[in-house]
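INTERNAL AUDIT FORM
Audit reference: QA-55
Scope: verify that the stored structure record matches its stored sequence.
Auditor: D.O.
Record contents follow.
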Amino acid sequence: MASWLKTAIVLGILALGAIGAAQETVTLSFAYPTWFSDYQRFVDWYIPAFEEFMAARGTPVKIQVVELPAPDDPYREAVVLRLAAGTAPDIFAEDTFYIPADSLAGYLLDITELVEAWEWERWVPAARDAVTFQGRVWGLNRDTDVRPLYWRKDIFQAAGLPVPWQPTSWEEVLSAARAIEARRAEIAEALGVSDVVPIAVKAGTLGGEATTMQGFYPLLLGAGGRLYDPGSGKWVAKSSALLAALEFYHTIYVAERLAVDPEFWMAGAPVDKIHLYLSNVGQRPGEPALAMLVTWDGVWYDAANPQHERYIPEPPGRDAVLGYCKWPAKEPGSGIRGQDFVTISGGWAMAINSRCQHPEIAFEFLKFVHSKGECLANRLAISGSIRLPARWDISQDPLFSQIATDYDIWCSEELVPLTTVRPGLTEYPKVSDLVQEATDRILLGESPEEVLDWYATSLARVVGSDNVIELP
């Protein structure tokens, strides 16, 4: 057995607390997304190792894996149907987006006292916030994520733009897009692709939450705004930041046509397609290549994975083609909290069904999986798809620095300190739907001012007129 694995076992075991012995085998059901890079590790290691450990302690446990549909939306539908019917697994992965609604519905076990008696102080603030609702904790997350701005080195070089590159304002982003637009056909021919698209920002209702979180939110935060104002406890119906975000969409999609055609976001699977454009170096000659896209940090790992559809083949390979940088505020210092650069985090957690008959043992499994030793071992086992640790004591551990890439360290040091999360409120999914429709309206040609008026009226209808505010 490898030395690091032995260390992980010891650290994982030490992380577990004592519980009383049981007379019979305790059976727990468990669901985890099959498309996650560490799914097989759960099957091959976490579950059998935990079962063996508990048996040695005199509490035999059997964890039954429940396979649910993939990817996100079918998985969510399967989980919520089972929660409503009272047949959901005892332990399951939960997109933090749904924690407020599921906790209010009584589906999730409140684990606040359990985590506070363990190692909760070792989670970074954004990771804590993602699983906290109404001051209570409803899940544990091993990872967090951020939203870099990806850009194509080959396209920038062909357009005469600087490499490396870090814009400090939206105007610098737009200037780069215009420079690429000016040589669009020439660059496309050189790359052997059908077209070169200067920039894209996720949009439209078909984009779902990706539109809100990986498109609209970076713009809104960069203009210094939020969807919800914590000071007044109200949703923001109008603000200069909301208008600025809509104006950026209008600029690239309608006024200057620097992005994909608006119709792109209204059919098929546009989020999947836009990522394929970002990774197209000529292996798909009938498709365009994309020069700039704000999206989640995992795209970097996908681009180096030969098994992934977003793989950038060698030569030239990911590192020679794909660059990354921080998304800038509209102007230096104008971002949320006066920041020069902004990002936002989401991610998944593991939750315990409120109907679980053995919650204390279910939490022992969560402790095992989320222990420092196991989180480090997980990164050693699947280092090609490392995600950002939710525990600060992992990113500060010397072992992490040995296995982390420059990109991992950059995300941890440059973006995590800047990040924020979505409002942990039950109204948020409906508000997010309005944001997505607002971008659709821009794509269809409505002016930013018209769309903002529509949004304000619709928001008041959804959350109540007493629960909205207009800000400068």
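Auditor finding: record pair retrieved intact. The radius of gyration is 23 Å.
Action required: none
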